[in-house]
Design a protein that fits this description.
Elements (H helix, E strand, L loop, with lengths): L4 H18 L34 E5 L24 H5 L4 E4 L4 E4 L7 E2 L6 E5 L14 H13 L8 H6 L2 E8 L2 E6 L6 H4 L14 H4 L19 E6 L5 E6 L18 E5 L4 H9 L11 H10 L3 E2 L15 E6 L9 H9 L3 H9 L16 H6 L3 H6 L9 E2 L2 H11 L12 H6 L3 E2 L3 H10 L19 E7 L4 H16 L3 E7 L1 H8 L7 E4 L11 H4 L26 H10 L7 H17 L2 E6 L6 E2 L3 E2 L18 H5 L3 E2 L3
Parallel strand pairs: 1-10, 15-16, 15-17
Antiparallel strand pairs: 2-3, 4-5, 5-7, 6-7, 8-9, 9-10, 11-19, 12-17, 12-18, 13-14, 20-21
């Protein structure tokens, strides 16, 4: 695989270390063919570190590395251990999302919502009888009503993002009987199933057990340490230091919310942080776990070379799934000077050498997206293709046209010049299919003109100063080793900006601080992020409904925000989102409204989107097989989405 010189050295060093380790690994079950690496044997009867049979335990690398709140399983609070199996294994929702098709299906509900009036503001929810909480208490409409009451009565102290979403969405509600309730919405709600249920990775509406939470005096302080669950698993144990959580399949899984999908195959699911990437790679090669999360491409190649049971999502470039609901971009604090000036934001975009960023961090395995959303088979015809003519004509105030529709061809040419095997590169229509329809030009000279237009010039040291001549350092917050891919993307961005004359402090933070910076005005200047760009299907309102002045805080506020993380203050966008929220999503005018929002966001460069999230998720199929792959994409391959429950009923044990 082609990489730059630095990555080549990393691969060579890692391969050497792995070859040494391989000599200490368990012998392969059978001799390898000449030139083929021998896979370490999957031991029959082997036990895990938490005392479970390895053959009965699916082990996954945690999305967030280490958590600072391992004992917090209260889904009404924003700080709970959200990436550790709670929504993936333990909970159930009124309606789930089939991530292979983008269609909703009933989970706790018996059917899709019943519309009661022509205005689409009144709905009947009919629940599925026979669903039980893990402590044996039946799930009924009382739990739904209690949760709605709790959202409304405690909205000033509950910090889960879904609380303001639901309380601004629902007007009234009533119980009809134990399995039926009616809800009236504030405005026409054509997205009722995805707002009250799952849109992508989880739901704004986390239903809690009334018989447990109804006895709690202080819901904000309640940890819910060993939660009573609706899903097919319960929490068996966890590491108080935040490194792992172990979940066990319920004996009565057939009475759980997910029972219609079938029996989960793994008796246990073990979420564990295996450490920094080199340590993780070695553990992966030795069959210590089954699914990784965002391992860098060079480490994946090294692992594949040592263990033939390690596989990527696809067999050909770009090798990985590119259909995540979100994309990688740069979140800017648009309220904080000098980032409050569109000229500065555009200068940062045009100073970003995205081809080099993608090659340095991802070995060229990425798909560019200039829009504030991922470019997928669903969003491309709805948003990207209709706006290509507008993009080609779009010009900045000085007449400069920043769009480069030939980005994909430029990538192919650059990779060819660097020596990549031409057989690995796309041709024809596959160029834009693989690398995207286009991105912004890399033009530091135009960027300098824009900076100078607002009084920011380069000092004697070659770096831009503030308009009063004082030094300016831009802090770019990036993940530490808990997300190696995003970490590399962040360092590559900093390198690109530094070369263009921006003095950058790339600061690595753990997952807890990452979220704190994202949500706190006094802490945020810029950061690599994804939360603003999560448009999974044509319903753009689901992610952008918080584009409202109601979610803005003063620039000097240390109080966390719970919406509008892009800090957009634009009445045109506010009005369009509000209008779209009352539209029939199947009508052309709904998509037109979304396209207008996209154009306004791009014109002002509120958020520098870069690329679809390259979900580099290798699997080790020594113990389990039939994971989602490109040729068997029955679900997205993510272990941190609620749809992971579908994978758990579809994987197959490898006979030992």
């Amino acid at each position: 695989m082609l990489t730059n010189d630095r990555l080549i050295r990393v691969v060579i060093l890692l391969a050497f270390v792995l070859s040494v380790i391989a000599g200490c690994a368990a012998p392969a079950a059978s001799p390898a063919a000449p030139g083929e690496a021998a896979a370490p044997a999957a031991e029959a009867g082997a036990m895990t570190e938490v005392g479970t049979l390895r053959s009965e335990t699916l082990i996954v690398q945690t999305f967030d590395g280490k958590t600072n709140a391992p004992d917090n399983m209260n889904p009404l609070m924003g700080g709970y251990a959200i990436w550790r199996g709670f929504r993936e294994l333990a909970w159930g929702y009124l309606w789930e999302m089939d991530t292979a098709t983008g269609q909703s299906y009933p989970e706790l509900a018996a059917e899709l919502p019943v519309v009661l009036n022509d205005e689409y503001t009144q709905f009947e929810i009919r629940l599925r009888p026979g669903v039980y909480w893990s402590d044996g208490v039946e799930f009924t409409a009382d739990d739904v009503i209690f949760t709605l009451d709790t959202y409304f009565n405690n909205k000033d102290k509950l910090t889960y993002f879904g609380v303001p979403v639901i309380t601004n969405y629902v007007l009234s509600y009533e119980k009809v009987d134990d399995y039926t309730l009616r809800v009236e919405t504030v405005k026409p709600a054509y997205d009722f199933a995805t707002t009250m249920g799952v849109y992508t990775w989880g739901s704004a509406f986390n239903i809690v057990p009334s018989h447990v939470f109804g006895k709690v005096e202080d819901l904000a302080a309640f940890k819910n340490e060993y939660p009573v669950t609706l899903g097919a698993y319960t929490l068996k144990s966890y590491d108080p230091n935040g490194q792992w959580h172990l979940w066990e399949r319920r004996e009565d899984w057939d009475r759980s919310a997910t029972a219609p999908l079938g029996e989960p195959v793994a008796h246990y699911v073990f979420y564990k942080n295996f450490g920094d990437e080199q340590t993780r790679t070695l553990a992966f090669i030795k069959n210590e776990y089954d699914v990784d999360t965002f391992m860098s491409p060079d480490s994946i190649e090294a692992a594949k070379a040592q263990n033939p049971n390690v596989h990527t999502f696809a067999a050909a470039l770009p090798y990985h799934d590119m259909n995540d609901a979100c994309s990688y971009g740069i979140l800017l604090n648009n309220q904080k000077a000098p980032l409050d000036k569109p000229e500065v934001r555009w200068a940062l975009a045009l100073s970003l050498d995205l081809p080099s960023v993608g090659i340095n961090s991802m070995s060229g395995q990425f798909k560019a997206s200039a829009f504030p959303m991922p470019d997928t088979q669903i969003t491309r015809p709805a948003f990207f293709e209709p706006l290509q003519a507008w993009l080609n004509d779009f010009a900045l105030a000085d007449g400069y046209k920043p769009y480069n529709p030939g980005f994909g061809t430029d990538m192919v040419n650059k990779l060819t010049e660097m020596g990549m095997d031409a057989s690995l590169l796309p041709t024809g229509d596959a160029v834009t299919g693989n690398f995207g329809l286009g991105w912004w030009k890399t033009d530091p000279a135009e960027a300098e003109k824009l900076m100078n237009s607002v009084g920011m010039t380069k000092g004697a040291d070659g770096f831009y100063t503030l308009s009063d001549g004082s030094p300016w350092t831009l802090e770019l917050v990036i993940p530490s080793d808990w997300n190696k891919v995003m970490q590399r993307v962040g360092f590559s961005i900093a390198d690109s900006w530094t070369k263009a004359g921006f003095k950058v402090n790339a600061r690595q933070v753990d997952n807890g601080e990452f979220n704190t910076v994202q949500d706190t005005n006094t802490l945020l200047q810029s950061m690599v992020n994804w939360s603003t760009s999560c448009v999974f299907n044509t319903n753009f309102v689901n992610n952008w409904r918080t584009f409202s002045a109601d979610y803005l805080k003063p620039v000097d506020s240390s109080e966390p925000i719970n919406g509008n993380r892009a800090r957009i203050d634009n009445q045109f966008i506010f009005d369009k989102i509000a209008e779209a929220g009352a539209m029939d999503m199947s009508k052309p005018e709904f998509l037109t409204a979304g396209q207008e929002v996209v154009k306004e966001m791009l014109t002002n460069m509120y958020y520098i989107n870069m690329m679809n999230i390259p979900t580099t998720i290798p699997t080790n199929e020594s113990y389990w097989t039939n994971f989602p792959k490109q040729d068997n994409a029955y679900a997205v391959p993510y272990t941190w989405w609620s749809s992971f429950k579908k994978i758990l009923t579809s994987i197959e044990p490898v006979g030992q």
